[in-house]
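request received
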Amino acid sequence: AQRVTQPEKLLSVFKGAPVELKCNYSYSGSPELFWYVQYSRQRLQLLLRHISRESIKGFTADLNKGETSFHLKKPFAQEEDSAMYYCALRGLTGGGNKLTFGTGTQLKVEL
Amino acid sequence: DAGVTQSPTHLIKTRGQQVTLRCSPISGHKSVSWYQQVLGQGPQFIFQYYEKEERGRGNFPDRFSARQFPNYSSELNVNALLLGDSALYLCASSLDSSEQFFGPGTRLTVL
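response:
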């Protein structure tokens, strides 16, 4: 079975402060990990995926297979980062295109 | 391209009724996936179709069914609606097992 855990429902930080959104996963095979973001009144969209190893909008995430984690980080939070963030997993072992999502973390950046 | 489109936007049904939700993928995308998002939870995988064939099925009862048409659009059908089926139903399209692009969703309310 595959499972994604996001322990924080809400994370509130001040503008300019570092951000870390936690994500842990459980999967017996090789996973592909993603972060999706949903801004207010917009559709769910891909923020980044671990295989691309990109930095998008200043966010980075490193897959740590030993700790089964894929935490999302940004050194300096901006007001426009306020949104709902979902961590998701796709199993690369016969998993098709099924994404398993966590429950999401609402990030609120305060001025 | 308007991206993934879904219809209707909102829907209200009563228990026991049947509902059909529709999805049009991005032009050129051959894979469509359906997700159910209950309030406060992350999206949960229902089905994936690729080239009109079912590629994956989530842990949902047989009341849920779907199909994909030759133009790659898709329908999700839910029979014998229960109060617990009230949710946002998301459709996502992709080329194959690549990045999934989500639609705005259909909000289903069962009374």
